[in-house]
Design brief:
Blueprint: H1 5-38, H2 44-61, H3 66-83
């Protein structure tokens, strides 16, 4: 355990941030998976829209890199367009 007061605070804030990021990443994976499953069904548009929105939000907040979000969106849209 750290002896410096500021380092103790950093440990606490890092733990909070880690939990928040974990929740966001988990939701991202779920949304993308649901969108991939919905491809070819009538609920496809809503699922894809939700997944893209979450990807953009995560990239804006810095949870994932903006290029990673762009790559995931691109791959998702490629699958959507291939099914059409």
């Amino acid at each position: 355990m750290a002896n410096i007061k500021s380092q103790k605070k950093r440990i606490l804030t890092n733990e909070k941030r880690q939990e928040r990021n974990k929740a966001v990443k988990s939701e991202l994976k779920t949304r993308v998976k649901n969108a991939a499953r919905a491809i070819g069904t009538e609920g496809q548009d809503d699922a894809v829209k939700a997944a893209v929105k979450r990807l953009d939000t995560a990239a804006t907040k810095g949870v994932i890199h903006k290029n990673a979000a762009a790559r995931k969106k691109s791959r998702l849209m490629k699958r959507v367009n291939a099914s059409a």
